[in-house]
Automatic annotation (TrEMBL):
Gene3D superfamilies: Uracil-DNA glycosylase-like domain. It catalyses: Hydrolyzes single-stranded DNA or mismatched double-stranded DNA and polynucleotides, releasing free uracil. NCBIfam families: UDG_fam4. InterPro entries: UDG_Type-4/5 (IPR051536), Ura-DNA_glyco_family4 (IPR005273), Uracil-DNA_glycosylase-like (IPR005122), Uracil-DNA_glycosylase-like_sf (IPR036895). Keywords: 4Fe-4S, DNA damage, DNA repair, Hydrolase, Iron, Iron-sulfur, Metal-binding. This is Type-4 uracil-DNA glycosylase. It holds the Pfam family UDG. Belongs to the uracil-DNA glycosylase (UDG) superfamily. Type 4 (UDGa) family. It comes from marine sediment metagenome. PANTHER family: TYPE-4 URACIL-DNA GLYCOSYLASE, TYPE-5 URACIL-DNA GLYCOSYLASE.
Amino acid sequence: MKKIDLIKKVESEINNCQKCRLSQSRLNTVPGEGNLNASIMIIGEGPGKSESEQGRPFVGRSGELLNSWLMKELNLKREDVYITNIVKCRPPNNRDPKPDEVEKCISYLNRQIEIIKPKIIITLGRVALQSLFNNNELRITRERGRWRTYNNIPVLPTFHPAFYLRQSSEANKKAIKSDLLKVAEKIK
C-alpha cells in the first residue's frame, strides 16, 4: 500500500475511535497532517480548542509560534514536516491526557511513525516526552535538548510552544533555539 492509503486508513480509524472517554466530548478528531515523506515529525500532547474546532494540529497561537520556529531555526515550512499529537481528541478544559487515554491512542501514533519513517522526532513539552517513552519520571527541564532514541529514531525533546507563550523569557527562547539548532545540525 502507498503511504497516503496507509495514513488515510489510520485517520479513518481515529475518526471512528470510541476507545476512551475523550471520544464522547470531541468536536473533531485531530489525526495529524503534513508531508508523508517528512524527515522531521513533531509530536505534541493533544489538541486544544482551536485544533478541535478545525480538526488540524497546532493551528492556534501555539501553532503560529511553531510555524515561526520552523521557518527561523530550521528553514522549513509547516508543509515540510509531519505534525501530530499523542492523543487525537481534545482533553476537556485543556487538562493533560490521562494515562488510560494515552494508552488507547499511542498505537495510532506508533503507526504514524511507522508510515512516515521520520529521520528525527521532536517532542513538544512534558506530556509528549513522558507519553512517547511511557515514563512519567522524565522531566522536560532535564531532558530538553538531550537526544534520546525511540524505535531507532533520534528524538529531541524541547519546550511546548504554549509553555513559551506563558513564560517567554530570554532563557527559554535561547533554550528552544539551541534545541532546534541541534535538529538542524543532525538533519544536514
